[in-house]
Write a structure and sequence with these properties.
Layout lengths: L4 H27 L1 E5 L5 E6 L4 E6 L9 H28 L16 H8 L10
Antiparallel strand pairs: 1-2, 2-3
Helix pairs in contact: 1-3
Length: 129
């Protein structure tokens, strides 16, 4: 049994709307940047919205100490801080699509909005809302 044409049009409109939302979210995450500096200002890290390390700057003064372990710890801490900054920005972006009351402590700013949209019963063209 074939679906009535109006139901098909409704579903197509729903999928088109969902696709636009997911693309906007995807593009927005690509623009997210988190930046952090070490406490001594010798290490700077920039992390993208997907958690990837985009930039790492080391001031030439880091080599004065010749403490490889200390430098590694400083780099790791700075990259983690930049990643947290990027995640906060990605979450802010996701807030535009997912109301705070519907986000739990384990909310994923990358996939959470898409999952929310897929579960939304009031999508355009939907007969559920």
């Amino acid at each position: 049994m074939d679906a009535p044409p109006e139901e098909v049009r409704g579903r197509l409109a729903e999928y088109e709307w969902l696709g636009k939302q997911v693309r906007a979210m995807y593009d927005g995450i690509d623009d997210v940047r988190g930046t952090a500096h070490s406490a001594d200002e010798l290490v700077t890290a920039v992390v993208g919205g997907r958690g990837e390390l985009l930039e790492l700057e080391l001031d030439a003064r880091v080599f004065r100490e010749q403490d490889a372990g200390g430098l590694a710890a400083s780099i790791l801490a700075t990259v983690r801080e930049a990643a947290e900054d990027a995640e906060r920005e990605a979450t802010r972006l996701a807030e535009e699509l997912v109301p705070r009351r519907e986000r739990g402590a384990d909310f994923d700013p990358v996939f959470g909005p898409a999952l929310h949209l897929l579960n939304d019963k009031s999508l355009p063209g939907s007969d559920h809302g």
